[in-house]
Amino acid sequence: MIELLHIPMAGAAGQIDVYSGVSRMAGKLWGSLHRAEGGSKTAVVVVHPSSNFLGHYLLAPLAERGVDAVGLTTRYLGNDSTLLMENCVLDIGAAVAFLRERGYERIALVGNSGGGGLVALYQSQAESPSVRHTPAGDPPDLTAATLPPVDALIELMAHPGRAIVYTEWLDPAIVDEHDPWRRDPSVDLFDERNGPPYTPEFLTRFRTAQLDRNRRITAWVRETLAGLAENPAGVRDLPFVVHGTGAEPRFLDLTMEPTGRAPGTMWGPAAQANLMPASLGHHTSLRSWLSQWSIDESHCAGPYHLARTSVPTLVLYGTADQACFPSHARSLFDAVPHENKELRAVEGGTHYLQGQPGLVAQVADAVVDWVRPA
Predict the structure, then answer these.
(1) Residue 188 has pLDDT above 70, yes or no
(2) Per the count of CB atoms within 10 A, which of 73, 226, 272, 315 is most buried?
(3) Which SUPFAM superfamilies does the record cross-reference, listed alphabetically (predicted)?
């Protein structure tokens, strides 16, 4: 049986960070509850900051295995241009509280892909709240929020955090933020003179230039926000475009962290995905940049926050994943500060297990085994 959940949203406070007026007035978060036959006192919640997980591939298999499964959406469903990670934490808190009120005795969070860093941040703030405002100084204050802890975490084909992976993908060859065709050939991933394969010297230069670009954008964001503070019309935020967000060397050089993955990205060839509007994080606002994409300012660093948690944690990674690599999984696993944890490879698994029903079943079995009471 499938039920559409209407979960009251917490902390909206009239702030317009969601385009749709209907969504703002509704004040609801949406979840897709797949119920196990005979009922279950355990709920597994699959979440991502902005992806639509109402039809996530794990929901039906989990319910078939005897646990209730929820595909949760945040208020930023389908549009992360104004996303604040701190509000996503509030949204998970609202969902967990809602499920506790329904009588669920055990709740586990599955952070899939970009959900990995988010569930780590959530449980960290549920156990030991420390974040009092966004990096821009705005609400919410997570130390005063209702954030019920969950009983287990599962990191599924997850990276360590949006700002971390975004910086790993940021194209440092772009020297003019308004013109993606003005490029520095010395750090151009797509200039065949540089590779692939890429030399250690190039990669050192490339990674340094990625950090530099992220920090240049952050400095510009801070400067622009300071100017807006004096704006007589009360404008507090502005949108902008970031070109070149798919320049990860591992997309092209399969000798780097070799796995069973195919070359390229989830959106196709890397040179196209790098500039494709629908790929990662091209559209953002000033305040969202600081919360979501800034390597130095975002609160959502998965390893840092997992180190502040105490619940059993399972880390699953696909050996053919084009987006999240074994080193991402290892960084999450190593950060867990206790021994009630497991790192498990899904051999041949791609990022979304598309067309891999046997591996979907394998992952569902692993999740159910992990969340069952001892």
Answers:
(1) yes
(2) 315
(3) alpha/beta-Hydrolases
Give residues with Cβ within 8 angstroms of 5, minimum separation 6: 30, 31, 32, 33, 70, 95, 98
CB 122 within 8 A of CB 313: no
Please state the domain extents for the chain. Answer: 2-161+299-371, 164-293
Report residue 192 as tokens.
Answer: 């065949």
Q: Could you tell me if 29 and 74 are in contact, meaning their C-beta atoms sit under 8 angstroms apart? A: yes
- Cα–Cα distance between 224 and 168 in angstroms, integer? 25
CA dist 201 and 254 (Å) reads: 17
CA 72 to chain centroid: 13
* CA-CA-CA-CA torsion sign (6, 122, 359, 351): positive
Q: CATH number of the domain at 2-161+299-371, please?
A: 3.40.50.1820
Check residue 225 and give its pLDDT. 97
Contact (Cβ atoms closer than 8 angstroms) between residue 161 and residue 117: yes
Q: How far apart are CA 364 and CA 362, in angstroms?
A: 5
CA 40 to chain centre: 28
β-sheet with 106-112: strand ranges across: 2-8, 28-34, 68-72, 42-47, 106-112, 152-156, 313-318, 341-346
What are 311-349's pLDDT values in tens digits?
999 999 999 999 999 999 999 999 999 999 999 999 999
Q: β-pairing, 174-176 with 179-183?
A: antiparallel
Q: Which residue has the tokens 């004096």?
A: 230
The pLDDT tens digits of the residues spanning 142-182 come to 999 999 999 999 999 999 999 999 999 999 999 999 999 99
> For 276-285, what is the mean pLDDT?
95
Alpha carbon 145 to its chain's center = 21
Closest CA to 32 of 1, 64, 70: 70
